[in-house]
């Protein structure tokens, strides 16, 4: 029996319980967001923190990015969404991010924190945190 077959057999046995997550910390982007007129004119720094629970039966295969939930793809998706239009509310931006990320059937739950870092004096940030789970 080849080494790879042995590894795959071991992985297929239910001797472990897995909880897999993808973490993205402090993704900082300049985006157009806010209800005030000055926010519609000038982009502002917004920080994203994302924790994604993924399908525990998804097993990574070396050199096969389609065998995982790729954090680089997540970052590119969030970046692309933020460049498409002006968002009045962080909540509507979050909804668009959830919609796109949940297109991946291996994503089970997303904890999304979005913070404006320069909008309110005497704070390091203000924002929202939403958790959404696939039913």
Query: How is the main sheet built?
Result: 4 strands, antiparallel
* CATH class membership: Alpha Beta
Write down the domain tally: 1
**Helical stretch tally:** 4
CATH topology: GTP Cyclohydrolase I, domain 2
Low-confidence stretches: none
Record the strand order, biggest sheet: 1-2-3-4
* H/E series: HEHEHHEE
Total beta strand runs: 4
Mean pLDDT: 90
The rounded distance between the terminal residues' Cα atoms is 40 Å
DSSP strand content: 25-35%
CATH superfamily: GTP cyclohydrolase I, C-terminal domain/NADPH-dependent 7-cyano-7-deazaguanine reductase, N-terminal domain
Structure explained in plain terms:
This protein is α+β, with helices and mostly antiparallel strands and 135 residues long. It has one domain (16-133): GTP cyclohydrolase I, C-terminal domain/NADPH-dependent 7-cyano-7-deazaguanine reductase, N-terminal domain (GTP Cyclohydrolase I, domain 2), CATH 3.30.1130.10. The chain is built from four helices and four strands. The protein has helices spanning 3-12, 37-41, 71-84, 90-101, and strands at 20-31, 44-54, 107-116, 126-133. The chain has a four-stranded antiparallel β-sheet, with helices on one face. Helix 3 (71-84) crosses helix 4. The longest helix has 14 residues, at 71-84. The mean pLDDT is 90.
